[in-house]
Amino acid sequence: MVSACILVQGAPEYYQVAAEAVKSLLELSDFEVVIGCDEPKHFPFRSHGRLSVNRLSRPTHTHRAQRFLKKFDLLRECLSWSSSPYILQLDADAMLVRRLSSADVENLLGHHDFAAVEQTTISGSSMSREDFLRHYRDYGLRFIDPHAKVPDLADFRFYNSGVVFGTRGAFERFVRWSLEKISESHTEHQVLEHMIADQDYFQCWANSIHPGSVRELPWCWNHCEHWDEGFPREGAAILHFSNFCNGPEAETAHRMKALRKAAFSRQNLPRKLLIRAGQLQRRFMLQCH
User: Fold this and answer.
1) Which of 13, 153, 156, 242 has the fewest CB atoms within 10 Å, measured from its CB?
2) Are 85 and 103 in contact (CB under 8 A)?
3) CA dist 189 → 110, 183, 200, 203 (Å)
4) Is pLDDT of 13 > 70?
5) Considering the entire predicted model, what is its pTM?
6) Are 118 and 221 in contact (CB under 8 A)?
């Protein structure tokens, strides 16, 4: 069994996109879905069956990084609420568009602790792996563990933490280490103008603390228009509607809903109806862009 853990907090738009993420998981997987949120009454579901909705306390600190670091509290609670041997940490704006089973997750991980997708660029920029390594060295690693080894360029990967598969034991070790590091920090989670958040901790763990522990997955497992061309590309398994920490845009939930319904149709309907679902999806995407 796999437990998918999603943190939902703040603006109503987060709850709207998270609802689409949850529906995709319930429709296209056999996973247990664990939600941690600051206002359960705003979530359109109640705990039932494979879904549990749990209240997490609001961050006590006002710095913007705290709402992202809250993800570690959710993962700690998820590990205590669930006995699943595998965990999927999923951002609230990421959703399944291909059927996925617990056996598939086991195969994705192989003999690794974690599995994730490398973010190779930022659309519209010249960002490269070398630039991501420089940013990692100068900001994330400098703040979290300045004495840790900086990886060679050939070994470095900037894994996007919006979609991370892992074993229970690996998540337990990673979350324990992260929370200890956070508790030791006596300054704001920021270096110059750069926020230090959950993704920075994952980069540090994957590249400097336990290099080689992450299996690199192909693009289809974390497909996003902010780093991939041709979004949404045929063959994707998980679509990620990241907006770089700025929160979901007004139309994001509607885009997710249309794509989720099309994905469900492709998995379950006769061929004639599949063609119609594809036509509706393309029409919607043209309207959105």
Assistant:
1) 153
2) no
3) 34, 11, 10, 15
4) yes
5) 0.89
6) no
